[in-house]
Design a protein that fits this description.
Helix 5 packs across helix 7 and helix 11 crosses helix 12. The N and C termini lie close together (7 Å). The longest helix has 36 residues. The chain has 12 helices and no strands. By secondary structure, the protein is mostly helical.
């Protein structure tokens, strides 16, 4: 386990540094300026704004100054949201995004593992085939389709849930479900495949020959090894929930990081976009590390 941790940390730091520098260069190379508006600024005013934010310096110097600020936890001021630093904006949006993604992941695990377990106990039957068909369909439909569809049915037609904004727990139901459904489908398929392999192992066949109840065999001998592929998928799944939340937060009007990211990209707010990208990259690396550690705990063969 310690070896896994050391290896991951040794690759995570250069990866994060590469993400910061590449994102910085791409943002500067994008057309447009944070000072563009419907009424063009005169050259003197534009130059004064650029000097105030250090954008008149050579690109390598800007990158070095920005990287030095990031290392001290300073992501700089927002160029669009006046009187706000990027850290303050991230502090406002991060709890919403983490709550949305965390609830979606828990719901996806409950639905996916529950469906796979039920299908595994009815292997080869109509219930098994139906569950796997639905899981495949859920995996294929993206969140930008399920989100508006859920809003149309439950918010506009049935009017049982709010359609946008953050006002109580009810406003999180639709976005959480929209985020969770594709991940639940993938987890169901992985867990069902893992169960099929686990139930065919020799020690499971021996337990069945001794007359153990099917439920006992499932819970005591088959479920833990069946979850190994699910755990290895959780790192990318958690990352996908974070990045997918950008679309869902925009669709449902939630004040999370997705809103700041989209608005920052549209307005060329370089520090805000870079701050969100760095945070996303760090969380993705963290989630993958946690998934690797859990994978090593479930399957000791990968340790060392």
């Amino acid at each position: 386990m310690r070896a896994i941790l050391i290896r991951r940390l040794a690759t995570a730091i250069p990866t994060l540094l590469a993400v910061i520098l590449l994102s910085f260069v791409l943002m500067r190379a994008a057309p447009g300026s944070p000072f563009d508006s419907e009424r063009p600024l005169d050259p003197a005013t534009r130059a004064a704004f650029a000097a105030a934010y250090g954008l008149d310096k050579p690109l390598p110097e800007q990158a070095a100054r920005y990287l030095g600020g990031v290392l001290t936890g300073d992501f700089g001021p927002s160029l669009v949201y006046k009187d706000f630093t990027v850290g303050a904006l991230i502090g406002q949006g991060l709890p919403v995004s983490l709550t949305l993604g965390g609830l979606a992941l828990l719901l996806a695990l409950a639905l996916g593992i529950g469906a796979a377990t039920f299908a595994g106990t009815h292997a080869g039957g109509w219930a098994d085939r139906a569950i796997m068909t639905v899981a495949t369909l859920l995996t294929a439909v993206p969140t930008f389709v399920t989100g508006p569809a859920l809003a149309l049915v439950f918010a506009l037609w049935l009017q049982v849930l709010p359609v946008s904004g953050l006002d109580g727990a009810a406003s999180l139901v639709l976005p959480v479900v929209a985020l969770a459904l594709p991940v639940a489908g993938a987890i169901a398929r992985l867990a069902r495949a893992g169960l099929a392999v686990a139930l065919a192992q020799d020690h499971v066949l021996t337990a069945r020959a001794r007359g153990l109840a099917p439920r006992t065999i499932l819970w005591r001998h088959a479920l833990r090894p069946a979850l190994v592929p699910v755990v290895s998928y959780l790192g990318p799944a958690a990352a996908g929930l974070l990045t997918g939340a950008v679309v869902i937060e925009t669709v449902f009007g939630l004040p999370g990081l997705g809103r700041y990211f989209v608005q920052g990209a549209l307005n060329r707010d370089y520090p805000l976009v870079l701050g969100v990208v760095i945070l996303y990259a760090g969380l993705i690396l963290l989630f993958n590390l946690i998934a690797d550690l859990a994978y090593g705990w479930l399957d000791p063969r990968v340790r060392g």
